[in-house]
Write a structure and sequence with these properties.
CATH topology of the largest domain: D-Maltodextrin-Binding Protein, domain 2
Number of strands: 10
Largest sheet: 8 strands, mixed
Number of domains: 2
Distance between the termini: 69 Å
Shape: globular
CATH superfamily of the largest domain: Periplasmic binding protein-like II
Radius of gyration: 23 Å
CATH class of the largest domain: Alpha Beta
Strand content: 5-15%
Structural class: alpha/beta
Oligomer: single chain
Order of helices and strands: HEHEHEHHHHEEEHHEHHHHEHEEHHHHHH
Helix content: 40-55%
CATH architecture of the largest domain: 3-Layer(aba) Sandwich
Length: 421
């Protein structure tokens, strides 16, 4: 009898093991990982037969990691993809459309129409749904409130000023707040193509136009605006190490070495953890007043393993739909929702300020900002853009050489792609 019982138990264990699925997830780590872990903990209560392995990939290495994975066939089941890179990887992602009705109980059209327009454009490929939104962000400024008070400088919109600074006013503000607080730098900014795109857009320059033509060597303002950007580092208004050696901009800002952080809504949780008096503020206005929408998508790679693909699709839709795992993720990470008429109950009033600032910036941002960046050409140019900008800041090349090198990369990509897309 004892042998029979042991045999039954072994059989049950073997069957259970055969039914278990382990999903590998590539994530950006940090706050993103915390949100995934919180959602996964709840998901496993509902689906105990699914295990997860989260692999952190630093942002600076993300594109290379994914590209090598595609080339070598060594891919995870699920991956978080930042907005600008998403178009370039759509062709490798599973179409989630077939699973929406099954696991969410709504039609694919209802699912897509619930999102903000700027998000829906990016997750769909024709009728196919290639991603779910993980979080929605807008670029904005963060200011050290104590530094601004000491300098006697109001900031928009919750620091005594309602309108955005003009660019000339903004540069004057950076100089004054730096001097008043005797700090080495005025502003921190992460080295990314997206920050440079936002800066140039505000100054009235486009890297690519709406027809996806390269314009930096055609626009007479481009050289001057790029030169002024590089000069911000030479004047120590910005932190050279952040663009030369990819130093984390939060280090200088939270450490009190700079008074302004050009980042966005995604910085909320990290800045709260710093325990200092920081507040969101409008980006400055020049030829244009705009911001860049961003964030992360979540998608399942086509691996050919049907049981794992469906398990991955099921989890992706659960964590990517309002009222389910999505709310857990957002409350944990202090990110904004990508869905219209979706109220998330955060436990800190700072999110009211963040949503007001970023909501206004989203309203004034023109459509071309999304159109250009939702292209494979721009997606594939990002690494070259940030590398060339880094070299210019380091003094390794001049602005003319930077523009010339980017033209060569654009022509190479256009030839490789065969068309502007």
């Amino acid at each position: 009898m004892k042998r029979f019982f042991v045999g039954v138990m072994l059989f049950v264990l073997v069957v259970s093991a055969m039914g278990a699925v382990k999903l590998v997830v590539w994530s950006g780590g940090g706050t993103e990982r915390q949100g995934l872990e919180a959602a996964i903990a709840e998901y496993k209560k509902l689906n105990p037969d699914v295990d997860f392995e989260i692999v952190d990939v630093p942002y600076a290495q993300y594109e290379q990691k994914v590209r090598l994975g595609i080339m070598g066939g060594d891919l995870p089941d699920l991956v978080t993809i930042t907005y600008p890179y998403a178009p370039g990887y759509m062709q490798y992602m599973l179409d989630l459309t077939q699973y929406v009705q099954k696991y969410l109980g709504i039609t694919p059209e209802q699912f897509k129409n619930a999102m903000y327009d700027v998000v829906r454009i990016r997750v769909t490929d024709g009728d196919a749904v290639r991603y779910v939104p993980l979080h929605f962000t807008m670029q904005c400024l963060w200011v050290n409130v104590d530094y601004f008070k000491k300098a006697g400088i109001p900031y928009p919109p919750f620091g005594g000023r309602s309108d955005p600074w003009t660019w000339a006013e903004f540069i004057d503000v950076l100089k004054k707040v730096k001097q008043a607080n005797n700090i080495p730098y005025a502003m921190s900014m992460q080295r990314t193509a997206e920050r440079l795109f936002n800066y140039l857009g505000i100054r009235g320059v486009k890297i690519l136009d709406e027809n996806l033509d390269f314009t930096l060597d055609k626009d007479p303002k481009a050289k001057q605006m790029l030169t002024e950007f590089v000069d911000l580092f030479k004047q120590n208004l910005m932190v050279p190490a952040e663009w030369i050696s990819n130093q984390d901009p939060n280090m200088a800002f939270t450490g009190g070495l700079s008074a302004v952080l050009w980042a966005g809504s995604w910085s909320t949780l990290d800045l709260l953890k710093a325990g200092k008096n920081f507040a969101p503020a409008y980006l400055p206005k020049d030829a244009e007043w705009l911001s860049l929408e961003g964030g992360r998508f979540f998608g399942a790679f086509r691996t050919g393993k049907k049981d794992r693909e469906e398990a991955a699709a099921k989890f992706a839709l659960w964590i990517g739909w309002r009222g389910l795992g999505y709310d857990i993720y957002l409350r944990t990470t202090y990110h904004m929702s990508a869905y219209k008429e979706h109220t998330v109950k955060y436990d800190n009033p700072i999110m009211d300020l963040v949503q007001a600032v970023c909501g206004r910036l989203a309203e004034v941002t023109p459509a071309w900002v999304v159109t250009i960046r939702n292209s494979t050409l721009y997606s594939n140019m990002q690494t070259a853009i940030q590398n060339q900008a880094s070299a210019a800041v380091a003094g390794q090349i001049n602005v003319d050489e930077m523009i010339k090198n980017l033209r060569k990369e654009y022509d190479r990509l256009l030839s490789e792609l065969g068309s502007k897309k």
